């Protein structure tokens, strides 16, 4: 049953993505013949300050009972702090996460993926250590200008193994480690 739902959701995602290709954050209600009303969000491009507010406004603008809530991810990453805020909002409001076959979820996007109640990955998920403007030594000293980045605490909230943080920290910010299907399962991301 879950597999057939994933197939239908992936087909729906293709249609939804085609309609919203230019959007960074967009939320709308979509009617599915089989599932009923679905609250669907798409987060694409670079995660940046202001995206949390756009997501919150989109959710508030579409009240009501929905058969499902799903966020479609296709982003190259961006602001870790913004992604953590968005991830907490997605978790609190009961969204599932989907990375369609034609999509990528890289860098800070993994925080959004981790927030899903049900996580479905058909595309690629890549991770790396966050980039700190003052360098890794500034982060090691805890000198990151008031940022509230705590990957271990966040992933613990999302019931994701702390070994994901170790994998991220082992990959330089300028590199990307694409997670295998086995690693996605190991980290409870799929």
Topology summary:
Elements: H1 2-19, E1 25-32, E2 36-47, H2 51-60, E3 68-78, H3 80-92, E4 96-99, E5 104-106, H4 109-115, E6 119-121, E7 124-127, H5 136-140, H6 151-157, H7 163-169, E8 177-178, H8 181-186
Parallel strand pairs: 2-3, 3-4, 4-6, 5-7
Antiparallel strand pairs: 1-2, 7-8
Give the total of beta strands: 8
What distance lies between the first and last C-alpha atoms, to the nearest angstrom?
16 Å
Q: Give me the secondary-structure category.
A: alpha/beta
> At the fourth CATH level, what is the homologous superfamily?
2-enoyl-CoA Hydratase, Chain A, domain 1
CATH topology: 2-enoyl-CoA Hydratase, Chain A, domain 1
Rg computed from alpha carbons, rounded to a whole number of angstroms: 16 Å
The average pLDDT value, as a whole number, equals 84
The first-level CATH class is given as Alpha Beta
Question: Uncertain regions: pLDDT < 50 for 5+ in a row?
Answer: 4-8, 15-23, 136-147
Give the second-level CATH assignment, the architecture.
Alpha-Beta Complex
Given the C-alpha coordinates, what overall shape results?
Answer: globular
How does the major sheet shape up?
A: 5 strands, mixed
Describe the strand arrangement of the main beta sheet, using strand numbers.
Answer: 1-2-3-4-6
What does this entry look like structurally?
The longest helix is centred in the first third of the chain and has 18 residues. The chain has 190 residues and is an alpha/beta fold. About 14% of the residues have low confidence. It has a single domain, classed as 2-enoyl-CoA Hydratase, Chain A, domain 1. A hairpin with a 3-residue loop joins strand 1 and strand 2.
